[in-house]
Amino acid sequence: MKPLIYFLCSAFILLSCERATTDAVTPIRPLTENEKLVTSSCNDFAFRLFKKVNETSSEGNIFISPLSVSVALSMTMNGASGETFEAMRNTLALDKFPMVDINSAFKEIIPFLSNIDKNVTLKIANSVWAKEGIEFNEKFLSDLENYYNAYCKVLNFSNPEAKNIINNWVEQKTSGKIKEIVKEIPYNAVMYIINAIYFKGIWKYTFDKNNTKDGYFTIPHENEETYLKTKFMTQIRNFYCYTDNEFSAIRLPYGKGSIAMLLILPNANTLVNEFINSFDRSKWERCLNNLKETKEVTLYIPKFKCVFDVGLKEILSAMGMSIAFTDNADFSGISNSLRCTINDVKHKSYIEVDEEGTEASAATSVEISYTSFKPVFHFNRPFVYVIYEQTSGAILFMGKLFNPALN
Fold it and tell me: What are the tens digits of pLDDT across the range 70-84?
């Protein structure tokens, strides 16, 4: 009898250990200190960006990829100098790092994220589309190729097919979810710097479609509430959860568990927009560090789909990098022959959440245009010259040089 008891006790202990470590994650390698710090800073930017985007849509759905925006703007920052560089670096919360450290971190973080879980699809792609006939700095282009694995292509921007070529690349990299990031190429556009992200993850614990039932989703308004009939997925199991006096959270892992969705529900007396205004990295980390396995949690989550499109020019300007969008911008690192500025930053995203998992994609496009050409006067053909008195405007001499070899 004793061997049987020992066997059952051992089995119970093993099962208990297995359950307690269900969501334990073993990374493919530890992050370096620089990678940790850059990622942490990017998260600071993420919360500030999310807050600003939310201000544009207080009663609508929003969905963004802060990573996509960070990568696209960091690539662009390689061409910035002086006050423009500092404004962009501060806005991205990367002010503690030289450009080489930012580049080095992204060079490693991007493949790290892409390969973290073989049961999850995460593709991150970068590209640079340069206007034909313009001389760009080789170092700028080679840095984007080297650090960001960016696909660099020269295009004839006056060809109507140029925008289709760019959009086709984005559509391919987002598995058809983002079909158009460039609507028209303006006459003064000289470059597009684009990041595209595609994610598809199957829940580690999928929802049974037979348990998906109708329910009501409450939408608060100023003086009333609307009840929207909605399909709710449900399951009962052990989840990692967190609750305090501000919000409750539950972790839903994908694949092997390295990537997860954290669902955050503000307390009943707090409107979601009020919560977003106070939500920052410190609250985020407090939540993550205190998630505890909770037994037999009943979870209800609505099935949903969101397609989102936002222009980030005004938002990023308000966050501190307005100079990058003006004629005073310094992007001398992109080209010595052009005075460049950021004309626009566009962000598009898509997400669908159902019983099997989540499919999401995003693309960020940074449109670089010229404000004016640096003047080059090359008098290598016949010209006229005038000698005059400035105060009165009186012309003293006029001439034409047709052939400098003639005396």
Answer: 999 999 999 999 999
